[in-house]
Amino acid sequence: MDQTLSERASTVTLRVNGTDRSLTLDHRTTLLDALRDHLDLTGTKKGCDHGQCGACTVLLDGRRVNGCLLFAVACAGRSVTTVEGLTDGEVLHPVQEAFVARDALQCGYCTPGQICSAVALLDEAARGEPSHVTPPERLPGGPVPLTPDEIRERMSGNICRCGAYPNIVAAIEEAAR
Amino acid sequence: MTRHEPATAQPRAAVRRDARQKVTGEARYAVDRTPPGCLHACPVPAAVARGRVTAVHADEILRRPGVHAVLTHENAPRLGDADDPTLALLQEDRVPHRGWFVAVVVADTPENARAAADALRIDYAPSEHDVRLSADHPRLYTPEKANGGHPAVRERGDFDTAFAASPVRLDATYTMGALHNHPMEPHAATAWWDDDGLTVYDSSQGATTVRDVLARLFRQPQQRITVVSAYVGGGFGSKGTPRPPAVLAAMAARHTGRPVRLALPRRDLPAAVGHRAPTVQRVRIGAAADGTISALAHDVVTQTSTVKEFVEQAAVPARTMYTSPHSRTTHRVVALDVPTPSWMRAPGEASGMYALEAAMDELAEAVGVDPVELRLRNEPDAEPDSGKPFSSRGLAECLRDGARRFGWAGRDPRPGVRRDGDVLSGTGVAAATYPVLVSPSRASAHAAPDGRFVVRVDATDIGTGARTVLAQIAAEALGAPLDSVRVELGSSRLPDAPVAGGSSGTASWGWAVHKACAALRATLASDPGRTLPPEGVTVEADTKEEAGRTYPYARHAFGAHFAEVRVDTATGEVRVGRLLGVYAVGRVLNARTARSQFIGGMTMGLGMALTEHSTMDPSFGDFRERDLASYHVPVCADVPDIEAHWVEEHDPHLNPMGSKGIGEIGIVGTAAAIANAVHHACGVRLRDLPLTPDRLLPLLTTRASAP
Questions:
Q1: Is-above-0.90 flag for pTM?
Q2: Which ipTM did the prediction report?
Q3: Class of the domain covering B145-178+276-436+552-705
Q4: Catalytic residue among B312, B349, B476, B664
Q5: Which among B24, B265, B635 is the nearest to A84, CB-wise?
Q6: Is some CB atom of chain A closer than 8 A to the CB atom of B125?
Q7: DSSP class per residue in B594-651
Q8: Which of A85, A108, A132 is the last residue of a domain?
Q9: B178 vs chain A: nearest CA distance in angstroms?
């Protein structure tokens, strides 16, 4: 390994949950595996490793991404927020609070990805970014109202096999208020 | 038995106890705690459908940087017999199906392990294979038992004569392809050996069972094996018994002398962890002109593997559901060169009730009776198969309550008449049932001098809310505040407990917890003035006797499902607009987590009806749909605002909590309710699940062009 490390690895700095972290990473290491295996941030989950399930959703410079589809070394200098970075000390993020209050989870494995996705969704809607179901007459304009259909459409990149969707929609509606 | 009186002060919808750990990412699953020095294993699935491994070119791989070992049938540890041939891994050169693991590559990093596994050359001597299920397969046979220990064949009266003599006869065959559990957490394990023996963090539905099986495989006393399943990312049956990761990780750890982590790639799951086998189900109903059933036959054809016999017991619910003086229910199976099927949420009920309840809808149409009314007319006085009275049977109440809530009254039965542009809409109903199961469990209850309590039981919370509900049961039995009770579960170091499966977890674990806590309460009450010793007081309980009792009753949960769908006649797409379930499940212990389980089951039923499509490639002998981009589990946009309700049911013949299981019944009638609604919408009776646009559209076109 040592012999090839220099060919296969690079040292990069990622700003993770507000702190600069310098890591020497195999070029094949995904952002997801870097967070989990190199920073012990195991809240971010691996459900498919193919960008199909959303369990690895994190925020990259504030936008939601599938951590399994990005090579970590390609994220050098960028800012990553994981589910662990959403809490303020002991205080939960309003989306986390709403997921607890609405029982928007069962096994919990997709939950960190759902929550990161929902946090980004609130920003996207506030910025007026349309989705497939946004009525054309709303564009261009201010914030997109988060109707249940808007939330369902925008959360469909995050699979929940336990089937907590109705509660997830209710939680995000609550957090959006 | 001691009746369990709910204490007034206990919250009946207590917040899920591990919700905070799950929303913050603190909850650690099977491969979320990597020990120092841990190696990474990647299994290699067989690339032929049947044959033998003739060479594994491990030497090429072992030269690669970071690779520590390649385990094959030639060098892997020899395993003992655990009475589960799916776990006899790397023991011989035989390949029983494509996807069977033939090697494991162990390396220093996940990246190196995966690259080496991809590069590993394996030579095979392939044999001809047969992976095609058909209703006239020459090797079909009648097994002795179907899953759950049910007899494969049951007969009452004289079906053939009664059917021939019936004024109304329905004869319909329903099919469905394989279904895959696909829990969000792929099966995974972290294992290491040290002076204390073997420790495994395993993604399982029952750590006690995994420990017992590993003890037999590795020929170790049980106390030298510890299995931890503290947080489990779903299972739906596919983690009900040990699966390859725990065994392979333990083998690799033994071989290398290092901790080993192994997480299955998603694409390996369909072949490696079980699935719901495809079925061909013929249902024949002979009825009077008013819809009263005289003759009922349910004949199931399904498949298993050559590794192990598993028979989806799809004809079993017909033994319970309806008046049927003349009945025949049968299962036949063929052992093909396919992966081994296993439990998937409500095995037998989910598949069988799709066919039976779709047939009931066809009968309702044939006799011109409302489908809710038809079911009420066929309510039996006792369980048809056993003749036993029901301990409680809330189906009629569920149907009536559901019809009222759904707005069923006044429904126009004519199909194909509710049109809005290209879109036709319709509504459907189906019944659901699930048996009351219970297994022996142990538990302990501990009182500390500070007034707090600890309950210990090797239960598993796979997302059901076991942590929460067991604390409620304990608090009620102790007469103590809920927040004074801590529950420890998810480790084989705790008192032995059965699997989270068969919708029996709460009944099984809860009974033992209740017994331990009631005994502890009695102990404390016997000497109310005393000060507890510093180490506190602990009481242990075992429900071997209680759980083994036989009852002179048929004990089942029931439910009714109502669905409203829209069918786009231009695209063939079906969308579910409303889904409503009403359940009769004894006493509901936690309204919040119960509702979540019901809507979750209904969501999986929606997938079964419309989106979850798996096919077998006949030339490669492989499931074609092996990832979540091709095997479509429902996503948020597919799922409407589902309603789940329950009726009050007081059944004194269950357990001290008065509860029936709730984890599986939600899926049971959902697919039929949706399929029946599709027929009501567009008049097309498609008897093959899932109802995908490519199947539906040609039938819609035919209908539209008919004169």
A1: yes
A2: 0.97
A3: alpha beta
A4: B664
A5: B24
A6: no
A7: HHHHHHHHHHHHHHHHHT----EETTTTEES--STTTS----GGG----EEEE-----
A8: A85
A9: 17
